[in-house]
Structure formats: structure tokens, C-alpha cells
Write a structure and sequence with these properties.
The chain contains eleven helices and four strands. The chain is mainly α. The protein has two domains: 3-85, no CATH class; 96-343, P1 Nuclease. The strands form two sheets. Strands 1-2 form a two-stranded antiparallel ribbon. Strands 3-4 form a two-stranded parallel ribbon.
Amino acid sequence: MDSGNSLKVSAFALIICAKNIKSVNPIFSIKTYQFFSGLYFITNNYIYTNTYPLVIKNSDTDLYRITNLTLYLCMLKYVTFFLILGASFPGFSWSANGHRVIGQIAYERLTPKAKRTFAHLNQSLNRDHRRYSLVAASVWLDALYDPRYLALKPIHYIDLPYSVDGTTLPKVASRNAVSAIETASTKVMDSSVTDTERATSLRILLHVVGDLHQPLHAITRVSHAHPQGDRGGNEFRLGKNSVAPNLHRYWDRGGGLLSPKMNAIAVKDLAKSIGSEWTCPSDDQNVMHWAETSHALAITQAYAIKEYESPSAAYEKNTQRIVRQQLAYAGCRLASLLNHLVVK
């Protein structure tokens, strides 16, 4: 890299830093995510990452040291804001263990042919990505930090709007969880596309079917205060509790049911318990019906609490009951979908 290119990198870093730090507020916007992605892109293309991600190649000149320092201070300032303000990024989905529970429930209900077919297809991505079993692959979509996959972010949810005060409803984005499941379902068994594309479609199904059963992934609460919606409860702050600072995360964590400390045995035990507790619903393959059911649960159950209120014991118990039901239904429907696909 010559001095001119280094200046470009430094300038680009400063532009990103200035533009985004200017917009910082107690609730981080999507700009924060774009900022870190921008830094990732810069470091991935211009910076050695073998030892430390902010060590510039050929950094023996003052110019390279300045570039390095620019990036470091910019990131440090953002991290400082993050820690001081206690801000939260938009929730992506159930906790990782929630997805593993859904994956385990689904796996136990797959036909032998479906297990063989999708286990083989799943391996197609393992050459380029960390190895995942079919069950563990259900968390893959939340573990992507590669800018090539930024376009997949909107497919974790469908913001079906709900107004509490008559505020005009925003339009539903065309790229969403429902459209993603429908598209992936057509591609996963399509022999005319590459194995990588088919395997990616499989992992989208393994993850997004689960996402769509989290009630707050199928709604955005619209009001005069939030005319574009509260991002599925991400901007709906809760009072003091031991689970999460906002409503979305509270439900992602199952009201405390889905502990990050769960090991593989605990995940299997919970999947077995939930699987035996709930009967699989009728074989409804209409994905929009799933979204509408989650949407209704969000209105009647998730939002049955006031903003800044601490969840009561009764609310926590009800949340965990609904989450257990939704995990079971997600696992059943995922298995049914995959079983149908291999016999088409």
C-alpha cells in the first residue's frame, strides 16, 4: 500500500467515524452496525489480521501509524459510547440456545432421507465456514460478520405494523422473513443452482423458521413517538429485571428460560421436554400464517406490559409458557417443511 492509498483509508475511516458518532444516541441506530461493518471492510482489505486487526501492512511510516491510530481511536470512541450509554443493537433472534432447541426438536422429527440429504448439503458450506452439525447450523445466520452477508440482515424478521394511537402505518418491507423462507424453500432442492447457494438456503431455513416464531420478530409497534415502529420492541424499554433491558431481548431470552449457560446436554433435555409437552400443530405450510400468529401473540401477550415497567412474576411465567409453545411449533414446522422438500 502506498502513501496515497493510506491517506484514502485514513480519510475514509475519519468520514465514517465523524458521520456515525454524530448520530449516536442512547438507543443505537442501524448506523452503528454499518459503522462496524465499514471498519471490518477496511481492515479486511487493507490491514493484516494475523496478529492484531489494526496493524497496518508495512506500517513503518508515520502515515501508516496515523491511519492505524485513526481506526483505533474511532473504534475506541464508539466502544466507550457503547459502554457508557448501555446501548443495545437491534435484536437479531432467539438466543443461540433457542435456535439449538428448535434445531434439535426438528432433527428428531426428520425422516432418514431428510437427515441424509440435508446433512450432506450442510457440509457444502463447511469448506469456507466453521464446521457446524445440522442442529448447530441453526445459529449460523446470527454468527455472520462478513460484509458479503449484510444483505441477509432484514430476513430475520417481518415488521408487520401495529398502531396503538392511530398513527399511519408504514409499509412492510418486501425483503423479510416470510419472503426469505419462501425463496429458500424453492432453492434448497434446485439442482440448477450451486451447492453453496443451496446450502446457504438450507441454513436460512434452519434459522429463519425459528425467528418467525419469536412474536417480536413479526411486529413493529407504531405510535406518535415511533412513527416507523419500535423495531419489534427493541426501543421498548423495560424496568429493572434480571433478563434484558428491552422487550425484544426479553423475549429473545424466553423471559429467562433460555440461559446462555446451557450446555449441549441441557439443550437436548429442554428440547425433549418441550417436544413432549406440546403436540405439533396441523401441517400448515403457509408461512404468512405463522407470521400472523406470532404477530397476534406479540399484541396480546408480549405488549401486555407498560414501557419502563418491570416484568412481574406472572408476566415472566406467561412469557416462558408461550416461548416453550413457540419453540415446539417452530421445530415441528421446520421438520415438516424439510421433510416435504425432499419428497417433492
